[in-house]
Amino acid sequence: MANINPRVIKVEYAVRGPIVIRAGEIEKQIKEGQHNFPFDRVIRANIGDCHASGNQVPVTYIRQFLAGCTYPPLIDSSDFPSDIKQKVQRLLSVCGGKSLGSYTESQGLITVREDIAKYIQERDGYPSNPSDIYLCNGASDGIKTVIKLLMNNDPKKPSGIMIPVPQYPLYSATLSEYGAHQIEYYLDEDNNWALNIDELERALNQSKEHCVPRGIVIINPGNPTGQVLSRENIENIVRFAEKHRLFILADEVYQENTYLPGSKFFSFKKVLMDLGAPYNHMEMASFHSASKGWHGECGSRGGYYELINIDKDVRMQVNKLISASLCSAAWGQAMMGAIINPPKEGELSYELYKKERSDIVSRLKQKADLVSQLFNSVEGVRCNAVMGAMYAFPRIEIPEKAIQHAKSKNMAPDAFYCFQFLEKTGVCVVPGSGFKQKPGTHHLRTTILPPVDQMKVMVEKFRKFHMEFLREWK
Amino acid sequence: MLAIRCRLPINSSRIVSAAGVITRKEQKRHASLTMETLNPLVKEVEYAVRGPIVIRAGEIEKKLKGSHNFPFDRVIRANIGDCHASGNQVPITYIRQFVAGCTYPELMKSSNFPSDIKSRVERLLSVCGGKSLGAYTESQGIITIREDIAAYIQQRDGYPSDPNNIYLCNGASDGIKTIIKLLMNNNLEKPSGIMIPVPQYPLYSATLSEYGAYQIEYYLDEGNNWALNIDELERALNQSKDRCVPRGMVIINPGNPTGQVLSRDNIENVIRFAHKHQLFIVADEVYQENVHLPGSKFFSFKKTLMDLGAPYNQMEMASFHSASKGWHGECGSRGGYYELINIDKDVRVQVNKLISACLCSTAWGQAVMAAIINPPKEGEPSYELYKQERSAVVNRLREKAELVGRLFNSVEGVQCNPVMGAMYAFPRIELPKKAIEHAKSKNMAPDAFYCFQLLEKTGICVVPGSGFKQSPGTHHFRTTILPPVDQMKDMVEKFRTFHLSFLREWK
C-alpha cells in the first residue's frame, strides 16, 4: 500500500461500494441456510440494471440481430426474420473477413456510426457526421477518454471540472484518479434539482484559485436526481459555459427515459445549435449508452459519444489516442447498432418490437409515478418527482442522536441508516453520501427497476423501518 | 437573402450566421479545447500499428475502388494481428454457437443445437443477473468464467490458481493499462519508470507516454534470437535511476514484434533480476498459444516463479491473456484477462475498487473468453469439429511461420530471425546511405520512408520498425504471417522485387 498509485486510493464508487459488498455477503448467508435475518431475500435496488432487477427481459429483435451477427448460419433458417437478416448482412459486410471477431476501425464500424448520425439528425434537426461519432466500451469509457483530454497534468493548479452535486460517482472517481480538481455545483432540491446559474457562478469563482476550470458535466436526465431539465435551464447553462469557455460534457444516457407528462428531453446539441452564434460553435461532447432506455443492455458495454465542433487537430489527437487500445467491443457496437436503428413500421419485426418496447416504457412510467408518491407518503421523507432516468432520491430526516452515533462510527449518517435498512429488511440501496449532497442533508438512492409488486413491498418495508428508526433514535 | 457587406479579406475563413460574421481566429479565442490546451501527455502518444502508414493504406484502398494509377489492384494488409480480417481463418464453430446461444437462448430449442454447447450456455446464464448477458456482471467478471480460467492456469502450470485473482478486462490492452496505472507515483520530478523491451508492442510506449511515466528501454539481442541479456537489463536500469523510480518490468513472451519464445533459462534469469531490483513483473503472454517451431516451448512466468521456490515464489506479478490471438483470433470481442499473483490483500481491495467505477468488462467478451478457455472435450458432440478446425488453423500458422522466415532470408540484404511464436516476422533490412539521408531530409525514419515506398509501389502495408523502436542504426519492418499462404508467397515475391529495385535506385 505504501507504493501503490496514491490517486487510486482516493477513488470511490458507491454504486458498488461497501453496502453492496455487504448485501452480497448477506445473500450468501441466506443461500447457505442457517441465518438470523428477518427476511429471506435481498432486494437489490442499488444499480440501474434492467435485466438483473427483473424490470424486463431482452428485447427480441435485438438478440436475434446479435445472434445472427455472431453465428451467420442462423440467418438462413426459415424462422429467422428477413428484416433482421438484412440488417445482419449489412453489418457483417463492413467487418473484416465478414466477422464480428475482427478488430473494427478505432472509432467503430462505419454502418453503426452512420445509423447513429442519422438518429441524432432526426432527433435534433441538425446534421451529424459519422466522423464525429466514437463507439466506446459503455459511456463510462468514453467519458473517461474525453475528460482525459482536458487534463493539464499540473499538480499545482490542476484542471478543474464542474460536476453536479448530487452526481453519478463515476465523475468524482475519474477526477480523483486523474488528480483533477472537482468543482462541485449544488443542484437545487427545492426546484426539482434544477441548475441555478448563480450557484454555477459561485462554484466556479470559488474554484479559480485552486484550479484551471476546463469543463462542465451536466447529467440530463439526472442521476441520481431524476430531473429532466427545462429548455430554458439548458439555454442558461450553455450561455454560462460560453462565457467561461468551458467544454460541455453532456451525459445524456437517459435520453430515452422520460416519464412525466411535461418532461421533455432537449439535447444540449440541439439547444446549442438553436441558440445560433456564438453558441453554435462551442465544443462539446454528448454521451449515449446501450445500458439504459427501453433496451437495458448493460452487459454489452455499448455506448458512443459525439464530438461537436471539435478542432480538427485535436480530433486527430483523439483518434490517435483511442487507436492504441484498437477498438471497442464489436459485440457492443453491434448492440448499439441494433438499438439505434429499430424495426420500422411495415417491417416484419416491427409489431413485436413495438409491443415489447411500450410494455417496458409503461412499466417504468408507472413505477416512476408510484415510487415518488409512496415515498412522499412516509413521514419525514420527501421525494422529488421522478421525471426521468431510473432512480428515486428521497430525502430523509435523520434524528440528531443517530447522526452522532454514525459520526462516532466514522460513517456518514445516511450510510449508517442504509446499512441498518439492509440488515433489518434486506433492501439494498445506495446512501446519498455516495453521490455527495448538500451538507446537513441525507438521502438514499433506489432504482425504480424491480417489478411493481416488489417495489410496493420495498416501500412498505421502508415505511415500517423508517418509523421504527425514528422511534429508536429520537 | 440578406446581403452582408464585409471588410474581411475574401480568403479568410468566415462563419456567417444570423448574428453576424465571426472569423476563424475569433472562434479559436473562444475555444475550450485546442492544441494549446489539450492534455500534453495525449500529444506524446504514438501507436504505429494504426499509424500514418495504415491511414495511407486506407486512402489508397478507397482510390482503388475507382480509376487510379497504382501498379496494383489491391492493398495487402499485413499490419495488424487480426486473424479473421486477414483471411487466416474463419471463426471456430463451437465458439460462435456458444455465444449465439448465450445471446438468444431461444435458439437452443432447435434440435440442431449441440447439447454439450447448450449445457455450457445454461451454466453461464445461470449466474447472470436475470439470466441475461445484458446484465452488468461482477466487476471482476462472471464467476464461472473465472473458475474455468483458474482451472486452465492450474492445468497449464501445476500450481493452484484462485478465481479471486482473475480479472476479466476489455482485451488485454485494457488490463495492461490498469496494472501499469497502479505502479504510477504521480511525481513529475521523478516519475515511476517501467522497463520495456526494444523492439516492443507500442501499446506500452503509448501508455507510458499517456501516464507521464519514464520508459526504461532494454534492448533485445537480435544476434541471439531476441533474447533478454541480464547485462543489458542491468545497464538499462542503472542508466535510468537518476531520472525515475523503477517500479516494474514488461516482458512480452512470445514476443511482439520479435516472435521469440524465451528459453526456460532466460525466464529464470529475468525473474532473478526482477527480484533483485524489486520490480513488479508484467508478463504479456497473449501469444501463449502461438508457438510454431519445434524446439520452442512456452513457459509461463508464473510456473517458472513457483518452480524457483523461495524467495521468488512470493514475487508480485501480473500475467495477461487474450481472446484476440491463439487459434481463435476473436479480436473484435475484446475478451481478455489478467491474473494477479502474490498481490498484497489491501492493494487488491484498491484494485477492485478502481475497476468497479467502470462497472464491468463486456459480457460478450467474457463469454468469448469462457468459450475459448474451456473447449469441447474428447467424447463431447462438438469435439471432433473443434479439433479439426483448431488443428487446421494451427498447422496453417506453423506452415507460414516457417515459410515466411525462410523466404525473407532468401532476399539479399535482408535478415530475418525465425518466427518461433506470435504472429509476425520482423526482418532487418540494410538501407543504402542515400535513402537514409533522403528520409532524414523529409523528417521520416528511414524504415518509415522505405515502408511508404513499399506501399505505394506494391500495395503491401506493413509497419516500419521505427514504430516499435529498435537499436539505433538498424532498420526493420513488421509483417504479420496471417494472410493465406498464396498471398504470403505473393507478398514476399513482390517485396523481393521491390527491395532489389529500391537498392538499385538508392545505391
TrEMBL record, chain A:
Highest taxon in the source lineage: Eukaryota
Reactions the enzyme catalyzes: L-alanine + 2-oxoglutarate = pyruvate + L-glutamate
Record domain Aminotransferase class I/classII large: where: 85-460
Cofactor(s) the record lists: pyridoxal 5'-phosphate
InterPro entries: ALAT1/2-like, Aminotransferase_I/II_large, PyrdxlP-dep_Trfase, PyrdxlP-dep_Trfase_major, PyrdxlP-dep_Trfase_small
Molecular function GO labels: L-alanine:2-oxoglutarate aminotransferase activity; pyridoxal phosphate binding
Family membership: Belongs to the class-I pyridoxal-phosphate-dependent aminotransferase family. Alanine aminotransferase subfamily.
Protein name in the entry: alanine transaminase
Taxonomic lineage from the root: Eukaryota, Metazoa, Spiralia, Gnathifera, Rotifera
Automatic annotation (TrEMBL), chain B:
Protein name: alanine transaminase
GO biological process: one example: L-alanine catabolic process
GO molecular function: L-alanine:2-oxoglutarate aminotransferase activity; pyridoxal phosphate binding
Catalysed reactions, semicolon-separated: L-alanine + 2-oxoglutarate = pyruvate + L-glutamate
Top-rank taxon: Eukaryota
Name of one Pfam family that matches: Aminotran_1_2
Keywords associated with the record: Aminotransferase, Pyridoxal phosphate, Transferase
Protein family membership: Belongs to the class-I pyridoxal-phosphate-dependent aminotransferase family. Alanine aminotransferase subfamily.
Record pathway: Amino-acid degradation; L-alanine degradation via transaminase pathway; pyruvate from L-alanine: step 1/1
Top-level EC class: transferase
Domain Aminotransferase class I/classII large, first and last residues per copy: 130-493
InterPro entries xref list: ALAT1/2-like (IPR045088), Aminotransferase_I/II_large (IPR004839), PyrdxlP-dep_Trfase (IPR015424), PyrdxlP-dep_Trfase_major (IPR015421), PyrdxlP-dep_Trfase_small (IPR015422)
EC nos: 2.6.1.2
UniProt-listed PANTHER family: ALANINE AMINOTRANSFERASE, ALANINE TRANSAMINASE
Assembly description: Homodimer.
Cofactors demanded by this protein: pyridoxal 5'-phosphate
